[in-house]
Amino acid sequence: MSAKKLLLIDDDLELTELLKEYLTPQGYELDVANDGEAGLSLATSNKHYDLILLDVMLPKLDGFDVLKKLRTSHFTPVLMLTAKGDDYDKILGLEMGADDYLAKPFNHRELSARIKALVRRMALLPSGSVQQNLTLGNVELSPLAQQVFCANNLVELTATEYSILHLLMINHGSLVSKQNISEKVLGKKLAAFDRSIDMHVSNLRKKLAAFSPEEKIKTHRGAGYLYLVST
Amino acid sequence: MKGLSRFNPAQSLFFRVFLWFWLAALLIFFSSVWLAKQLGSETKYQPLNAQQQKDLVTMTNKLQNQIDQRAGKVVLKRLLNHVSNRNRFGLILIDLSTRKIVQSENRHRPFQDAVFDDFNQQSSPLMLEVKGITFVGPSMIKTNQSEYMLFLVKPRPGGNLGVVRHEYPGVFIIFMISLSLGLCYLFVRGLLNPIAQLRHASKRMATGEMGVRVGNASRRLDEIGQLGRDFNFMSEQVESSLNSQKRLLADISHELRSPLTRLQLSIGIALQQNESDMSANMLAALERIEKESQQIENMIAQVLLLSRLDNNQPIQNLQSVSLEQIMTPIIDDAQFEAEQKNKELFYQVQENISLYAEPQLLSSAIENILRNAIHYSNHLIQVSVLVQDKHIEWIIEDDGNGIEESQLDRIFEAFYRESTARDRNSGGVGLGLAIAQHAIDKHQGFIQASNKAKGGLLVKISIPITRH
After folding, report:
1. CA-CA distances (angstroms) from residue B235 to B28, B201, B239, B246, B247?
2. Chain B CB contacts of A112 below 8 Å
3. Cβ atoms within 10 A of the Cβ of B431, count?
């Protein structure tokens, strides 16, 4: 497998240097942009990135704007780097389609675990099911192309939404706990009262409902989610 | 008894000033009355002036005529009233033989009969003034039965205080006492109310309330007003220096995040080196550095959380959450922690109810208290949740040494550390309890620590159940 490509958008030059030094030995290739505009143009260029690490506080274009503009065309996984103590940032980030967030200062182990989870999510799913197309009712998921069709329309999902849907569809008819989703998809333990999984699922529901109104994902309050078996 | 003590002049400036002023006012009043009495009690005799002479003659003639016309068959009293009403004079007849007095009604002030004792038919007419009443007479009146001396009395002037003073001295004294009472009260109140305001304001400020200002007291132009303005100025200064201190703390924590992120990454890079190239000492040191930087990270997170809780804005993210949802993870973690330390934790709850709260904040408050209890207990920790009418209460008890009574309130202050026992190994910075208190405050609840009779600390957390 070729090296995973990461794009790092952060204005702290020393930090980007260190991140490069830290992540390269782990088998990642890093491109760095030091402001929002440069970051956005790299992210939307022809180069393929497996993950974008995006800081919130950026010159020229802040992290949220970069994310908003990026999401109009690209569904590259995005890990937001928020500032610790600003809970509002992480909620806003998730709403705007970030896949996950990490509060600065972060522990280096935590960082590499999250990156690993977001770029290698395919490996987290049961191996046998990976290659097969999954069809449940009018929803069709193609793991090879990482595409989802609902009533024959292409649904544009973020990588995390796609992974959650994939996980739920594989386990259709049975409850998948939020812990399970968090560990498999985001590579982290679910913290108490963490709403990030709920937000991803709610975004996912909205996107599916745009093409087909009937309920597909049922919530079990406090426990988890269940993909309904269509009759 | 407590209510009465505010009337004790030894304890209340209000009543001391009030009593002094009142006593002084009464003293002045009574001495002037006494003085007036001394001057006014002597009976004054003066020869009649022309007008008085004329009045006396006219009245005597009128009365004698009336008596003569009726050939003596008169009721003297009625006749006197009749003549008196027509002529604006009070009339007094004194029987020369019996010294009996007949007088017209209501036209003059009461007087003592003895006033007339010195007069007989030989007395020449005089003006005589007794206690402010002026009599003119005598002149002689004859009826069939008897001979009388006639005195005229000046009609009383209407509505004069002096009248009341002479006619009803009791009423007058009571009136004067209550008037002076009222005036003194108003005066002293005007003087001391602003002081009470100041006292109230400084008390509030002492309890840590921000933005305390004295209102009316600072608008006065006198010394008390100056004091009030100085107080307001002081309050502003204290507030702004406190705020800048807090802001400084938050700013520093903010700024520390970047270098700390870089530090943690550098540790990561160092640890990536081939471990065999590193001596055991080096590795241990790196791990130590990593642990300490984690500690710094926790502190920064706590300081930032505290400064976020310390503003006056209401909390966001209030939601309905079940008691069980909150307690289960906390108790699970705490059980684990207690077991690790060979301690026992008991948990009891009445019923599972639904709360309206910010679950993360509420959890962290309970967790911080519980952590503390586990840390300081000898062996037992007890957590009970009581659902009251409108409140839910957490009682968290340990069997440790408790806290010195005088320090009980202080343990919720930021960066408070018990001088002796605490060590940094407890993992905290002394912010856990402060965060707990702020978090509970945000839920309109309260948090209270007390020592148990049998030893150990008891912390009670209470928040209202209903939506607020």
Report:
1. 44, 10, 6, 16, 18
2. 268
3. 21
> Locate tokens 């806003």: which residue?
A92
A67 neighbors A80 (Cβ within 8 angstroms): yes
Query: Residue A22 and residue B268: Cβ atoms within 8 Å?
Result: yes
Query: What does the alpha-carbon distance between residue A34 and residue A29 come to, in Å, rounded to a whole number?
Result: 17
CB contact under 8 A, B268 and A108: yes
| CATH 3.40.50.2300-classified regions of chain A | 4-119
- CATH class of domain segment(s) A4-119: alpha beta
Nearest Cβ partner for B261 among A87, A88, A105: A105
Report the 10 Å Cβ neighbour count for B27. 10
Measured between CA atoms, the residue of chain B closest to residue A81 is B261
The percentage of chain B sitting over the pLDDT mark of 70, rounded to a whole number, equals 85
Interface check A8 vs B, CB under 8 A: no
pTM, rounded to two decimals: 0.62
pLDDT at B167: 63
CATH topology of domain A124-227: Arc Repressor Mutant, subunit A (1.10.10)
Check pLDDT > 90 for residue A54.
Answer: yes
Start-end of CATH 1.10.10.10 domains in chain A: 124-227
Tokens of B195: 């002081």
- Note whether B257 contacts A19, CB cutoff 8 Å: no
Question: Inter-chain contact B265–A25, Cβ cutoff 8 Å?
Answer: no
Q: How far is A86 from chain B (nearest CA, A)?
A: 9
Q: CA B152 to CA B59: how far, in whole Å?
A: 8
Prediction ipTM score? 0.76
- Compute CA distances B435 → B116, B301, B347, B372, whole Å: 94, 11, 23, 13
Distance (Å, whole) CA A115 – CA B285: 27
pLDDT at residue B166, as a whole number: 60
Cα distance between residue A209 and residue A139, in whole Å: 11
Tokens found for residue A43: 């992210």
Q: Could A85 and B305 be called an inter-chain contact, meaning their C-beta atoms sit closer than 8 Å? A: yes
